């Protein structure tokens, strides 16, 4: 950080907006290529190759930040993971600042997408980027391949105008946002500690200042198999899951009883999702095993360990009331998200600068919002680095026919470009 005044010639908001608009076709092309590349967990690499090309196309030198399982498993902010991260990489590219002023910045987006929910319900294949008027439909279009395209469009415009930053600007395309945030964490551990991070998640006209944390937990319930024809034989693990779910719903209700601000504005800020259930072997065999995979949120300031204890207690209460589970209690496992909620002061310099850029370009005030979703901003803020989200307008995220409003990709890139110019003190 520095108070040094810029000395070169800057570029007006209008010229910058026009330069970003000239990148619209390239942004659309990049967005569509990314959507057409399924980048679910474990399959991120083809997407990272596209981002590597895109960063190189800006005249920057992309560098790999490899995932390191040993380092991650030791780190207190890492999410536990049972899958392999070998050979998995984040792709980053730095535009070095000339020094003598400005503030350093990371522009971050995640390449990974969640698996398509109910593919048969989609109008087209989730992995075809389909233009529908001003919307582009496809899995990950809004969350958040459009955000990655906006980063490339904004930086492309700044470079083509011949601007140079005083402070470093780094672009990041990270893996594993949708399952725990370890890709972003690996980038933090790579050493750059910027003065601010902007993540182009789909928060249109809004800067996030507060977000919940998320815990993933898995409950393994064991029953006793037997032939269903012999009445009274066996213990059905699937049916034993019902009271466990009911007890977890009671915990969810407790967590929503008196939310701290700003979550007292939400009717139901903490949401439990029983996302996956697996169990049983055969229609005529009493189910021997059942596993639940769940997501539960936590407020900023609440500790992950405290929530784990409450989850285990809720499972324990259900087990204690069950004739068989009382003697054979379910096991609670942790795999994936285990991150606290985070907050950034609404008047933090990063928030003020994003708000100012939005207000000048869009002509209306930005909303400073709390969100009941979580993002990689959590990882940066928990590491002591201010981070906010701001990005295009998207609909049906993690749902059917996810889509992004393409004009908002361009307009968010225009705001981003103005913000970058001012934050990193860019002049020609
Ligand atoms: Zn996202």
Structure, described:
By secondary structure, the protein is an alpha+beta fold. It is 33% helix and 21% strand. It contains eleven helices and 20 strands. The protein has helices at 13-21, 24-35, 45-57, 69-74, 141-160, 182-189, 237-255, 304-320, 349-362, 377-382, 406-423, and strands spanning 62-66, 89-95, 105-110, 130-132, 135-137, 164-165, 169-174, 196-199, 206-211, 213-222, 273-279, 289-298, 331-333, 338-339, 342-343, 367-371, 387-389, 394-395, 403-405, 426-427. The strands form five sheets. A six-stranded mixed beta sheet has the order 1-2-7-3-8-17, with helices on both faces. Strands 10, 11, 12, 13 and 14 form a five-stranded antiparallel beta sheet that branches. A four-stranded antiparallel beta sheet has the order 4-5-19-18. Helix 9 crosses helix 11. The two termini are 20 Å apart. Mean pLDDT is 95; it is low at 1-7. The structure holds zinc ion. Zinc ion (ZN) is lined by residues 110, 143-144, 177, 201, 375.
Distance between termini? 20 Å
What ligand molecules are bound, each kind once? zinc ion
Beta-strand proportion: 15-25%
Radius of gyration from the alpha-carbon trace, in angstroms? 23 Å
SS content category? alpha+beta
Trace the largest sheet across and list its strands.
1-2-7-3-8-17
Summed up, the helix count is: 11
